[in-house]
Specification:
By secondary structure, the chain is of the alpha+beta class. It is built from eight helices and 17 strands.
């Protein structure tokens, strides 16, 4: 595959950067991850298409790394191709059909905070409860990111994606069958962009609500620490953090991975934490919660290049 990638570059069929044996620790918010065989940074859809087709043809595992904020990467080596869509960073108001609504387009590599910044500046309402969620638009759509009762699916009109053979398709929200922290995209498809429908409101009011939500999150979540966000999904009618705390897991530690003393559903890398440490701690916490409450916690963090324990 490396020879084919080099040939792509020489023939002008790939624009962007290619790295070999790239440590994923530099691309995840947990600062964990061993070397992946190949990491590519395509600059345009054609370059992405050529990589996807080559990977599909040779049956090479391929996965997209957004901002790496909901990712636990293996200690390595990691087989396959990691794709960064950071060049797919674009945002614009594409339609203001009436006095009450606006449609905003965002590329998959656009930081979610940048999208919320545009909404704040223009007084577009809807995103306020998502304030403080890290990552990119693509990752937020894929995981159906949510907070305080709002999920990103509530604001989506459509999503653009690319299939493994390079075909581009636009799917409406109803076709994607979003559910709690889950979407249902065609197998192997890569998210390219999304269109959002937002209500027009007073910019000062939108900014005030965003500030209020941010203050709540700073008080309740370890936003400045190295973490992957929530480790487990909230069981229906309950909160994973509450169950973990009730089981006496707050402050538990495995190596340099610790259950956050601020929010028990966050695991913090205190320095030299490894994927193995994280997985062992996950297993211990899950077992304690099961024993204490009878609840089986379901993993929310996406695991790449490792087997869940």
């Amino acid at each position: 595959m490396s020879d084919e990638l080099k040939d792509m570059v020489e023939r002008g069929r790939f624009k962007g950067e290619i790295r070999f044996d790239e440590p994923l620790s530099g691309h995840t918010s947990l600062k964990i991850g061993g070397p992946v065989d190949i990491m590519v940074f395509p600059e345009d859809p054609l370059s992405l298409k050529n990589v996807l087709r080559a990977a599909a043809r040779e049956h090479i595992p391929l996965f997209v790394i957004g901002a790496g904020t909901n990712v636990l990467a293996g200690d390595g080596p990691i087989e396959g191709i990691a794709v960064s869509l950071k060049a797919f960073r674009s945002i614009e108001v594409t339609q203001e059909s009436d006095e009450n609504t606006a449609v905003v387009f965002a590329g998959a590599g656009t930081p979610l905070g940048m999208l919320l910044g545009l909404a704040r500046k223009n007084g577009f309402s809807g995103f306020e409860p998502l304030t403080g969620i890290p990552g990119t638009v693509g990752g937020a759509v894929y995981m159906n990111a949510g907070s305080y009762g709002t999920e990103i699916k509530d604001l989506i009109l459509s999503v653009g994606l690319m299939h493994p053979q390079g075909e581009i398709q636009v799917l409406g929200k109803e076709q994607l069958k979003f559910s709690y922290r889950r979407s249902h995209f065609p197998e192997g498809a890569v998210i390219l962009s999304a269109n959002f429908a937002l209500a027009k409101d007073d910019p000062a009011g939108v900014a005030r609500l965003m500030d209020e939500y941010m203050a709540k999150k700073k008080a309740a979540q370890p936003l400045a620490a190295a973490s992957a966000g929530c480790v487990f999904k909230n069981p229906e009618g309950d909160a994973a953090g509450r169950l973990i705390d009730a089981a006496g897991c707050r402050g538990m530690r495995e190596g340099d991975i610790e259950v956050s003393p601020v929010h028990a559903n966050y695991f913090i890398n205190r320095g030299r934490g490894t994927c193995r440490d994280f997985l062992v701690l996950m297993g211990k916490v899950r077992a304690r919660v099961r024993e204490n409450s009878g609840t089986e916690l379901e993993t929310e963090v996406k695991i790449i290049g490792a087997m869940e324990r």
